[in-house]
């Protein structure tokens, strides 16, 4: 098992950043790597419970991921389990993600801590980095 930690600063107050990483209407604007859309989702990180999303690329490939929101501590952190589904909709190995928001000079910092990854972290690192690029584009305007 391997772990991945990424951080990025944003020019917004911590409370506003926390809204962007927990509220469904905000998450869907940046969820998934660049070039991906989210045609199906049940994402609400404002409360504990199940969640899921389907991401699609320009070629029409669909990628389903689901989990359970394990904790919500506004405006500091939200944690959830994460597992990709295969073509038969069977869940794969489960890992855990914690999104932590802290105050930073001139704004807030978001730290993504993705733990217990069964595979090499390179693919997850690329995906989360690309996803953060989308959030940056929205919040740097």
UniProtKB/TrEMBL annotation:
Originating organism: Lutimaribacter marinistellae
Entry similarity comment: Belongs to the AHA1 family.
Pfam families xrefs: AHSA1
Database matches in Gene3D superfamilies: 3.30.530.20
Protein name (record): SRPBCC domain-containing protein
InterPro entries: ASHA1/2-like_C, START-like_dom_sf
Ranges of residues in domain Activator of Hsp90 ATPase homologue 1/2-like C-terminal: 12-139
């Amino acid at each position: 098992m391997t772990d991945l930690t990424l951080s990025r600063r944003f020019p917004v107050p911590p409370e506003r950043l926390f809204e962007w990483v927990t509220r469904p209407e905000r998450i869907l604007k940046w969820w998934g790597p660049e070039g991906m859309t989210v045609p199906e989702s049940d994402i609400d990180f404002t409360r504990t419970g199940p969640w899921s999303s389907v991401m699609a690329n320009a070629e029409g490939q669909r990628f389903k991921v689901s989990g359970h929101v394990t904790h919500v501590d506004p405006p500091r952190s939200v944690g959830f389990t994460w597992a990709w589904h295969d073509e038969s909709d069977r869940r794969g190995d489960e890992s855990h993600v914690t999104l932590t928001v802290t105050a930073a000079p001139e704004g807030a910092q978001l730290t993504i801590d993705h733990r217990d990854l069964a595979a090499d972290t390179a693919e997850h690192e690329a995906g989360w980095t690309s996803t953060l690029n989308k959030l940056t584009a929205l919040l740097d305007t």
